[in-house]
Amino acid sequence: MADNKTNKGHQDRNKVSGSENYEIQYFKDKMGVSSQAVAGAMRATGSNDRKTLEAYLKKRHGK
Questions:
Q1: What does pLDDT average to in each consecutive run of 10 residues of the chain (63 residues)?
Q2: CA separation (Å) from 49 to 3, 29?
C-alpha cells in the first residue's frame, strides 16, 4: 500500500521508508553516512525505525 503523504502522524515520523529516496537522502545527510550504509543498517537490524537505525549507525560508524 502506498504511503499517504498527507497523513503525517507520529508513526510516519518514526520510520525511514526504504522505497522513498527522499527519506533515505535526508537520513543519510543527517547521519553523515552513505545511502548504502542506511540500506545496510535497515537489512542488518531488520527495522526501519529511526532510533534503531541511528543507534546502529552510531555504533557502526562512530557518528
A1: 63 82 92 94 94 94 73
A2: 16, 17
